[in-house]
Amino acid sequence: MKLLTEVNIAKAATNISHKDSIMLLGSCFSQNIGEKLSIGGFRTLINPFGTMYNPFSIAESLDYIMFRKDFNSNDTLQNGDVWKLIPCHGEVFGYSQTEVLEKAKAKQAEANSFLNNKPVIVLTLGTAFVYTLIKKQRIMANCHKINAKEISKGMMSVTEITDVLSVVLERLKEMYECRIIITVSPVRHWREGFRDNLLSKSTLHLAVAELEKKGLAEYFPAYEVVFDQLRDYRYYSDDLLHPNNQAIEVIWNKFSAAYFDETTINLCRKCEKLHSMRNHRPLYPQSVEWKQHIERTLALEKEIENDFNKPK
Question: What are phi and psi for residue 68, nearest 5 degrees?
Fold first, then answer.
């Protein structure tokens, strides 16, 4: 008896290997897949300005990174004794305006340098809704716990999303020869309301389809895997909105099958095993068993190092 609808994903025309660097930007789903890539031995940079959800903020962050556009006082917000930045997530903060601007500048420099590796860029769009700080007429990457009366809400159209992302993706391809993969986050934005969440996700899908037609991005169907193959609340966290670890593992396996060859998959498994071995904590640190564990860990590290140094 067949109890699920399998989402079959075609093999990508070009593989991704450990020779590639990968930058991930977008919703918390980018964080999840980024961590899997990092544990799997890939060189990654995950959300340098923090988690972002709407296409405008994602495009704006890439613009800041590519052109080293200066953050300035007009970008800052003060909440009590904490300073934040309108174009960034709240995890980029400081206890003075100068401190938060310096932090953002350091993250910007790191991300700009990372682009020189001609990375694969994975963008995860979370919502078509945007929130604008009325007094500065600036779209916010995060609400920053600002009073709702000071913010206006709107939803980007398919055309607006396509236009704002087209500009930045064309520049990335022209300036850095980046390969772009886009996915729509399977995380439901339930606070928007069940119908508005559906309209938002549908708008994102239509916009991504337009970007595909333009040849600016590839689409990876993480959204469809969750909603068509895993459509059961056992694959969700306690909030019933975010995919749980089991769902993320399924998506990761499908991503690996689509973009990795057998050699890359095997190296990922070795790196995952090494990560687990390094994080193991001994009950008896002076025991022979623990010393043997250390020896096995060092041997695996050497084996992986040799794998990375093999000619492409």
Answer: 50, 40
Give CA–CA dist 185/201, Å, rounded: 8
Residues belonging to the chain:
312
Per residue of the chain (312 residues), give pLDDT as tens. 777 788 999 999 999 999 999 999 999 878 899 999 999 999 999 999 999 999 999 999 999 999 988 898 889 999 889 999 999 999 999 999 999 999 999 999 999 999 999 999 999 999 999 999 999 899 999 888 888 889 999 999 999 999 999 999 999 999 999 999 999 999 988 888 889 999 999 999 999 999 999 999 999 999 999 999 998 899 999 998 999 999 999 999 999 999 999 999 999 999 999 999 999 999 999 999 999 999 999 999 999 999 988 776
pTM higher than 0.90 for the full model? yes
AA identity, residue 283: L
**Reading across the β-sheet that carries 138-140, which strands appear in turn?**
138-140, 129-133, 151-155
Going along the chain from its start, the domains and CATH numbers come out as 21-261 (3.40.50.1110)
